[in-house]
Amino acid sequence: MEGEKILKFKHQKTNLEKYLNIISLTLLVILFLFLFVKWSSLPNNIPLKYDNEVVLEWGNKISALGLPVFATLNWIMFTSVENHPVDNINLGVFKNDNKTKELIYNRILVNIIKNSIVLILVFYSCKNLLFSLSM
Fold first, then answer.
1. What is the pTM assigned to this prediction?
2. What Rg, from alpha-carbon coordinates, does the chain have?
3. Spatial distance between the Cα atoms of 124 and 47, rounded to a whole number of angstroms
4. What does the pLDDT average to over 61-86?
């Protein structure tokens, strides 16, 4: 009987999950809009790797899409894992006798990891774009 309840697990997302999703998606959309607007201003060769304003490696303009696209794919893949916690999430970080609570805690952890990765990628992409535009 307990197994049937777990298989039908559908729980509302917590406010933390909702806010993190909204923030990360909003910043992703803003990043893509910024790229779209500034595309013609970007130089043909942009720095991929630099240290204290010394460029170590160069790439073409298309490489500016790398981090935003990777962040978007990351968000989509982690969201699919989140939406099917019974099938995909078995972390063992939050062991609890109540399996529903355990799934909720694990789903929240996956959501935090997903949105942290996306926010870090958005930050570095913006940093690289602003550095490219300042050259």
1. 0.80
2. 19
3. 12
4. 87
